[in-house]
Every structure is written in C-alpha cells, then in structure tokens.
Amino acid sequence: MTALDQYSAMGDGYMQSVFSIINQNSGKLNFKALYSRMAENGSPNKIALYRAIAVLTKEGRIKRVKGIGINGIDYFYHDSALCKFKARVQGSAGVMA
After folding, report:
1. In sequence order, what are the beta bridge partners of 67?
2. How many of the other CB atoms lie within 10 Å of CB of 90?
3. How far apart are CA 80 and CA 54, in angstroms?
4. DSSP 3-state of 43
5. Cα angle vertex 56, ends 76, 69, to 5°?
6. What is the helix (H) or strand (E) element at residue 4, kind and residue range?
7. How far from the centroid of its chain's Cα atoms is residue 94's Cα?
8. Domains of the chain in sequence order
9. Could you report the per-residue pLDDT of 50-66, keeping only the tens digit for each?
10. pTM of the full predicted structure?
11. What is the DSSP letter of 17?
C-alpha cells in the first residue's frame, strides 16, 4: 500500500469535507482561509489538511492556482469541474510569417 493509498483510506471523510469547502468557495480560498474554515469545523490539523490537498490535487479534483493575495503571491484552490482556466499554448500561434 502506497502512502497515497494510506492517506486516502485514512481520511476519506476528511478529504470530502475539505473538497466540499473548496467546492463552495472555489477560487476564493488560500491555505490560511481553508485552515480557519476547517478549524471552525473542529479539525485544526495542518498536516492532515496538507495531505488532503495533496491527494485531491493528485486525483485531479482540485487545482492549485498562483495569484496575488493580501501579503503577496499566494496559492488559491479551485474545483477542477468549475475551473475555467486553460493551459497556455507555447509557440508562435499568433505570429504571422
């Protein structure tokens, strides 16, 4: 059993609660806001939250997007199904020869 399988089996309910909070507030949450929401629900464990975010990102259910926060550059969490970001196409697509 890999580490990823252990964390997903251990905290499936916890990951579902993290995912539901991200789904409700898609694009508006950074880690600090997500941690405070989880602490309000009675689970103030940063390590478990980091692991849940890592597993949800690896599964493709959420995306981590870099943006401008209050104190500089921060990462915001988006639901992949609701996320409308497109990957940038590298190359000379808009350049005429």
Report:
1. 74
2. 6
3. 14
4. coil
5. 10
6. helix 3-10
7. 32
8. 3-79 (1.10.10.10)
9. 999 999 999 999 999 98
10. 0.70
11. H
